[in-house]
Amino acid sequence: MTTIRQRRVGKGTEADEDQPSEETNVKPDGKIPSDHTGGKLWNILSITVGGIVAISLGLLTSVYVATLHENDLWFSNIKEVEREISFRTECGLYYSYYKQMIQAASIQQGLHGLVYDNNTESVRTINILERMNVYQEVFLSILYRILPIQQYLEPVYFYIYTLFGLQAVYVIALYVTSWLLSETWLSGLLAACWYITNRVDTTRVEFTIPLRENWALPFFAVQIAAITYLLRTHLQPVQERLTLMAVFIATFLFSLTWQFNQFMMLIQALALFILDCLDMLPTAKVTWLYIIQISGLLLVCVLQFFNSMILGSLLISFNASVLIARTIQKNLKKGGLLNRLGKLILHVLLVLCLTLLINKFIKKILYLESDEHIFKFLKAKFGFGATRDFDANLYLCEEAFGLLPLNTFSRLSDTLLFYVYVFVLFLMAVAAVIVAFRNLSGSNQVKLMQKVEECTITLKPDAAYSLVHTVLFGCLALSTMRMKYLWTSHMCVFASFGLCSTEVWKLILKCVHLYTPQRAQVIKYSIPIITLLYISYKFWPGIMDELSELREFYDPDTVELMNWIKSNTPNTAVFAGSMQLLAGVKLCTGRTLTNHPHYEDKNLRERTKQIYQIYAKRSPEDVHGILRSFGTDYVILEDSICYERRHSRGCRLRDLLDVANGHIMDGLGENEPDLKPSLYPRFCEEIKKNLPSYTTHFTRVFQNKTFHVYKLAKHK
């Protein structure tokens, strides 16, 4: 098991952003000096200072996570094999393709090896560029080869520094989004500080560096910042076109770097759909965003050799359905309240039916089954019937795919983030309900004009989008813990925007009859500054202690295993085992695998279930036959899986296999009435007894405290 141990001593006052197209130079509330030239200079100074602060915070965040990574592993001092083992599970698989491209004789040969790959799945030739989102590794490896940096920077450092550099882009994008929403860079400063002090819940880049989300989320944040700017009113045509281009580029890069992009953008499309139906966003801009999502995803589809999972995505079906439904219902936004509600319900039903029909039609034509495990998982997760499906249960039993733990909220509350977030969310939600009712009713009643004006100021289009975005992604995070990083980072933006928004404080002060422009400005700046001082006082010592704590990577058993494989097995040997371990085997030794952690392929899922029979109650003849059918030469058994205690009964890997095979589970507890006792003992336990029925097929060639390696007999 990989552990981290203690390192041995022997080893070492600004103003709002200028909006000349929306506001006059003379401000009655004192935002901008009355002198025209002075106002321009003040805004230039403000933007310059705000930009410098944004870049500085981004770079500091990058250095911060890089230092934590170095301090946790002593990465600069450990051996190359230990560095590679630290890229655990699927992280190691992705990094292996970067290493493969670096070590190839030429770029062309490296690309050919990825397009016609025979080592990732034995007895199969697969196209890595089609199956996996590894273009970032390809681009980075080419960049490393052509830049004159080989003598100064090792390939692994070029890779990890790029990822840590993207964290700077991430923080700057969050900063800019909050700045655009509140029109003060103080809000961006607060958002960035919250992101850093809540690092445990906002990012995991320092210990899962090559993970796809660490590549994708910075581009997603840039896309949200560009959308926020796009939704501003009175943009010049040139500004709008440039912003649309920025949205497209960010959407494309986000889609290219993460296989779950379609599900995240589907939630984003739902947010746009809701706001468009409630007349809170300009329809023309929403249409452009739908088109950008489709075009970005289709471009990625082309680059991934027409990946069928992309073509069959719900996002393409949904966006196409919305655009079709609009042409059918042209007078959707006309009429009174009841008339509008009736049309709206009909519109939603039409879009839903069209989405399902189009998606089913595409999947039937393409014979698409790659994503069926996701829908089985969702069906079981939300209580639509129990399942014995191995793949669905494999996800259900993982903590990362469970509900968001309650202790997350206590950590977020320590920095005041959660309290502020709930406060702002409540105010914005109330405003949204009022604005939605007014838009649907089409009322121009004089009595409501004052309230309407307040709500319109509070809930501008960009703020409305931010509200629905945070609500939908909050629901996703609450249901699936792994997706919390999409929510918590935007939570920092949303909370800081509300705390620094003139409109929010104006609305609150008017409600209690205490509003004056000067008082609103004082509160707008004083509350965030007090919050920043509190965060600095409470968390700065902890951050310094964290940076001073030195640890060391320590996993001798895995290091011993990898060294043995490299020294004692042929380069063409095929290895079977757990998909998490095999990713490391591929990275560290270059040997051929039977299965791996990239689970978005039906054939691979079926193959993995068959390989995992080594932990089930099966006869040695059955297991040997299964393994040899995939060309296996060696099988690695792990005690941590065979005698697993991490999960409770019913969620251990051996329990999932027993249930899927129709066998009674081990240990005390209930079993389904139709489950039967197995005729054979558990393979991973019985093989260690060296009985003749096992030694005929398997010979132990390596053993340590964690791993047992057996060589398979090649019977004719």
Structure description:
The protein has 716 residues and is mainly alpha-helical. The protein folds into 2 domains: 163-548, no CATH class; 556-712, Rossmann fold (3-Layer(aba) Sandwich). It is 64% helix and 4% strand. The protein has 33 helices and 7 strands. The chain has helices at residues 36-73, 80-85, 90-103, 107-115, 128-131, 135-146, 155-182, 185-197, 199-202, 212-230, 237-257, 261-277, 283-303, 308-311, 314-328, 337-366, 372-381, 390-396, 407-414, 417-441, 449-458, 461-479, 484-499, 502-511, 517-548, 556-568, 579-589, 602-611, 620-629, 639-642, 653-660, 683-686, 692-695; strands spanning 3-6, 551-554, 574-576, 592-593, 634-638, 698-703, 707-712. The strands form 2 sheets. It has a 5-stranded mixed sheet. α27 (579-589) links the parallel β3 and β4 (592-593). α20 packs across α23 and α22 (461-479) packs antiparallel against α23 (484-499). The two termini are 37 Å apart. Keywords: Glycosyltransferase, Membrane, Transferase, Transmembrane, Transmembrane helix. It is a multi-pass membrane protein. This is D19L3 mannosyltransferase. Belongs to the dpy-19 family. InterPro entries: Dpy-19/Dpy-19-like, Dpy19L3.
